[in-house]
Predict the structure.
Amino acid sequence: MSDRDPQPVERQLPTEEARDLLALVRDIAQREIAPKAAEEEDAGRFPREIFTLLSESGLLGLPYSVDYGGGEQPYEVYLQVLEELATARLTVGLGVSVHTLASYALASYGTKQQKVEHLPAMLGGGLLGAYCLSEPSSGSDAASLRTKAVRDGDGWVIDGTKAWITHGGIADFYTVMARTGEDGPRGITAFLVPGDAPGVSGAAPEKKMGMKGSPTAQVHFDGVRVPDDRRVGEEGQGFSIALSALDSGRLGIAACAVGLAQAALDEAVRYATQRRQFGRPIADFQGLRFMFADMATQIEAGRALYLAAARLRDAGRPFAKQAAMAKLHCTDTAMKVTTDAVQILGGYGYTADFPVERYMREAKVLQIVEGTNQIQRMVIARHLAGPEGR
């Protein structure tokens, strides 16, 4: 390794336990995840065995209570774990973030009995979750969702279709938002639906620009019967649960975006210190050096922004505005940094022989998922100037 090769990220962690945890994650990422990432993404293969390993290692329930099989880690630690995983392979980092999002409703709003019955398997029993809010006709306008849950005796019958579901068709459980009452946000209720429940089926995965190893699919609910003890929270509380989950989920996306941007910067630096033109490494040329400086600065700013939001969350303070800012800045940064990395590699950057073209394709989706960046700007503006149309 030359003295100009990329170095591991220097992290500020609150405890020795957290430092050991990040060391474990980095070892798994470098040994088990990164070596297969390019080949498996090209083949569109989802690495379920990696998620089994992460579950066995206690890494699928980090922010949740140890009483139910979680790791009880602060969000500032959990998000840095996501960043490390996403640096190795975005499919894995984003998958852990989505699983955490899918577990949020039960962990935060479930009864004690529900938590005892379901959370240990969700957090450390090898299960994989999915979060079902969006539909074919309701994306950003999520409160207009049409999937219905109708009372039937001591349970519910769910009918409808969810769209753009990460882990759709392969998840072991779905956290589903369904309409149980009036139109609008007050008529929505949350349910925990087993992936193998009769009437649950996944459509063929979407053919995507990037993240081909992460299945994204519509999920159909055709007369799916669930008992009332799988209703999470009160009737009509589902939309507020969904929004609360997304505030935390956006921080996960921000951390994944920083990890992806870091991977792109590391690859660009590695290439530029080895590639020689005009008798010297291209990393010696001022034009590229300034690009590196700008890329690194934006990555560090994004990391600081998501960690500041996480620390607010850990302190029990409002953080929705900061979460939206972090998601906006970090994902825009990932798009810019990965594009610059392709430019630095030149013609080689446009080929599949180097990972930066994949990073660039993957970065785009981060500006869209869990609220487009236009939605993030609306959220931030509402915190500053109040709701529109007052």
